[in-house]
Amino acid sequence: MDEPPVAGIARIAITGDGASTDVVARLSEELRLPIADNTSEKFDLLLAARADRLELRETRPGAPGAVYVDLLGCSPGEYRRRVGSRRQPIARAVGLPDDRPSVLDATAGLGRDAFRLAMLGCRVTAVERSPIVGALLRDGLRRAQAVPELDEIIAERLLLHVGDARWHLSSLAEDARPDVVYLDPMFPTVNGASALVKKEMRSFRLLVGDDDDAGELFNEARRVARRRVVVKRMPHTPLLGGEPDITFKGKIARYDVYLVQSAL
Ligand SMILES: C[S@@+](CC[C@H](N)C(=O)[O-])C[C@H]1O[C@@H](n2cnc3c(N)ncnc32)[C@H](O)[C@@H]1O
Fold first, then answer.
1. Does the Cβ of 90 fall within 6 Å of ligand 1?
2. Does any ligand 1 atom lie closer than 6 A to the CB of residue 133?
């Protein structure tokens, strides 16, 4: 399968806001984005290179705050206390605590789920097709690796690949097939989603679109996963595949699990 092009729906530019001109020029070339003034309103979105991080800003008046990758949001100890339980729904959905599966997160986004799974002990390959989201994620991983406790975990358990996961899955060698393929594609905005979810989704949707091809990704995931495919959905969003074999319900999301018959 040829790698499909990425659909972008916003006008976007890069802007320097504290980072050196070399960094801005390199990102502009890598991501093929024009360079703009950081007050420019000619674009819907600005990827701002600050001295300390990369962030995405909507330019329209009254837009929500910037989007950037913040994997921990607190100290490593506090993070473990909050999300470290190997009995939480996402952990059980991928097969923990009995197992330490290899997971291919085919919709990496801002990397929260991939990072959480790596912290729980899984070996994770995170695949993201938007080069701009990929750049945000790479920047967040680099900052997280400055925390000594996380450096080894990320280096050993979390690999980022920027490209389309359908293509990535279809080109994997037999011995590289993951135990679990994890999917969290964008979903249609539905009644019942919280205002915060709607607000975050708005900025993100502007950049990556609607993931209308999620059904194809699901089919490819089912073909390649050795043990199971896990689909994260919000409580009110429709099923992506057919009826799942198991569902684990969390406070914010549910995890639909499709078992691979030969692994049963
Ligand atoms: C809702 S976000 C995922 C959020 C992520 N689970 C997290 O914890 O931050 C969906 C992401 O999947 C990406 N995506 C959708 N289809 C993809 C595909 N076929 N290959 C790679 N990435 C894909 C989108 O570009 C978007 O960044």
1. no
2. yes
pLDDT digits (tens, 9 = 90+) for 114-130: 999 999 999 999 999 99
Is residue 21 predicted with pLDDT exceeding 60?
yes
Domain range annotation of the chain? 76-263
Does 116 or 78 have the greater pLDDT score? 116
Q: Measuring CA to CA, which residue among 137, 102, 109 is closest to residue 211?
A: 109
CA–CA separation, 68 and 71 (whole Å):
9
> Are residues 137 and 69 in contact, defined by beta-carbon separation less than 8 angstroms?
yes
CB 116 within 8 A of CB 252: no
Among protein residues, the one whose CA lies closest to atom 1 of ligand 1: 186
As a whole number, mean pLDDT of residues 64-77 equals 82
Give the fold, CATH level 3, of 76-263. Rossmann fold (3.40.50)
Tell me the pLDDT band of 196, cut-offs 50, 70 and 90: low
